């Protein structure tokens, strides 16, 4: 029984830890902040920057990051480079951006969605449920 309880504590701790890492990797705090105020603007692509990388098999891949410029509701001009979304946009094209009034430089072109908003909670809940079931089975058989 003690082994099952120790396993449960360690596994739930790991689920919470992994949920936090996943949330930061998906840029959850930045995206939630950009979506929180519900502010949108039309942004114009003012430049493109290409970055060479390798995929999982080592093949070369080129990622293009657009620089977008928009005006906030109070008239301030803001420019930022979108690194999160894989966009196919040409210079001069317009697109919708989501931003917060406190930090418009953290704007994003990603529309609000369920997964980035709740990645931490979902990962923690699924991991904790799995840990509970596994600990119950361990307690029953040990």
Describe the protein in words.
This protein is α+β, with helices and mostly antiparallel strands and 142 residues long. Helix content is 43%, strand content 27%. The protein contains 3 helices and 4 strands, in the order H-H-E-E-E-E-H. It has helices at 2-25, 28-36, 114-141, and strands spanning 39-54, 60-71, 77-81, 94-99. The protein has a 4-stranded antiparallel sheet. Helix 1 (2-25) runs antiparallel to helix 3 (114-141) and helix 2 (28-36) packs across helix 3. The longest helix is centred in the C-terminal third of the chain and has 28 residues, at 114-141.
Give a concise summary.
This protein has helices at 2-25, 28-36, 114-141, and strands spanning 39-54, 60-71, 77-81, 94-99.
Would you spell out the secondary-structure blueprint of this structure?
Elements: H1 2-25, H2 28-36, E1 39-54, E2 60-71, E3 77-81, E4 94-99, H3 114-141
Antiparallel strand pairs: 1-2, 1-4, 2-3
Summary tags:
142 residues; four-stranded antiparallel beta sheet; 4 strands; 43% helix; elongated
Helix percentage range: 40-55%
Head-to-tail CA distance between termini: 7 Å
Mean of the pLDDT scores?
89
DSSP strand content: 25-35%
Structural class based on helices, strands and sheet pairing:
alpha+beta
Side-by-side strand order of the widest sheet: 3-2-1-4
Number of strands: 4
Question: Biggest sheet, open or closed, and with what strands and sense?
Answer: 4 strands, antiparallel
Uncertain spans: none
The secondary-structure element order is: HHEEEEH
Work out the helix count: 3
Q: What is the 3D form?
A: elongated
| Radius of gyration from the alpha-carbon trace, in angstroms | 21 Å
